[in-house]
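Lab notebook, page 48
Experiment: co-folding of the full assembly
Goal: obtain a model of how the components sit together before planning crosslinking
Operator: M.T.
Materials (sequences as entered):
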Amino acid sequence: MSYVTHADLGGQPGFGPVTPEPEGELFHAAWEPRALALTLAMGATGSWNIDASRAVRETLPNYRDLSYYQVWLGALEQLMLQRGQVFPDEIATGEMRHPAEPVARVLQAGNVPAVLAKGSPTERAAPGPARFAVGQAVRMHIGKADHHTRLPGYVQGKRGTIEHVHGAHVFADAHAQGQGEQPQWLYTVVFDEAELWGNAAPRQNLSVSVDAWESYLEPAA
Amino acid sequence: MTGHDHSHEHSELGEMDLRVRALESVLTQKGYIDPAALDVLIDTYQTRIGPRNGARVVARAWVDSVFHDWLLRDATAAIASLGYTGRQGEHMVAVENTAEQHHMVVCTLCSCYPWPVLGLPPTWYKSAPYRSRAVKDPRGVLADFGTVLPESTRIRVWDSTAEVRYLVIPQRPEGTEGMSEEELAALVTRDSMIGTRRVEAASTGGAS
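Observation: model returned without errors.
Model output:
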């Protein structure tokens, strides 16, 4: 076991109150929009996929001490260092000292609106019939994954109900590891609050859902 | 020691600034990026793609029952018909708040958010307090926003763990029957489309 995510926060205690902020307040320092744009522009080169970038972000050792865009920038540097696209001496000096690695595409200013409007849909042809149907009871897998996963800890081992079948989607766990898209059926699974938090927790009149790939699920009695 | 503290803050801010500038410079020299594209990206999310888009979707759903039903049945297509598509909104689902049922959206694992209709997520949406508490203590989170719901109102929290993105259609406030679609859109706040606030008839929407 070497993979440690610091991002699986659902239900974790001790983080205090939420601080609302006005609608127009998007950035809190001049470098933040540049970090955002650099991340989007490099993402558009096709050098990695969104699941691989999430994996690098959530495993940054100091993830919880960093601000959001510090996480993005740190992960961007890591992704590029891993691919030999930049080197530490270049990051330190801002000067190109090693030859460039070819990239598949460069996002040109004129193409930005079209590229954003197109996005990256993840729905794919179904690999076969769906294993589960709406209304069916399922139990979520339990156990720590040694790789990026989108199965949050707080629902692992819990019993839920299939509420919606979304079609087959690129499987994030495989995609993040460079194992291709391996599309799987994707479901919305809904849980009762007592199942997630126990009967002792204060009742909220609450249900919670996650979107879960088929391999996260087993039929439940 | 105030002077020292100030210079320390400045040097920290400067550090991130320099780091981003250095990276941008290297990536430009290497031909990986078009610096003009960065400006367009930033301008897009500061001026063109933001919660006013979502507000138009909500207002249309409030006044047009055919659009309303389409939005609940196939949100991706209904939202695309107003021109909002693409990155981080490829697969949309709209959920509707009523007196009986309140919906709230979170991404406990990172910061998944419907960009084409709401733009970039606010800091609180990406923060540990919101991500940790929304799925366990949503009424406590709502209270942080000054939102109090009757105990009888069922709460549903949607954790965006895959590439489906959720838009909350808030309840249309009473006393807005005579308002135009445009006036209604101006009432709809970003937070009401995430589900942490309700829309108030007296709200000033995006101007708040």
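Interpretation: Strands of chain B lie at 91-96, 101-106, 154-159, 164-169.
Next step: discuss with group before ordering constructs.
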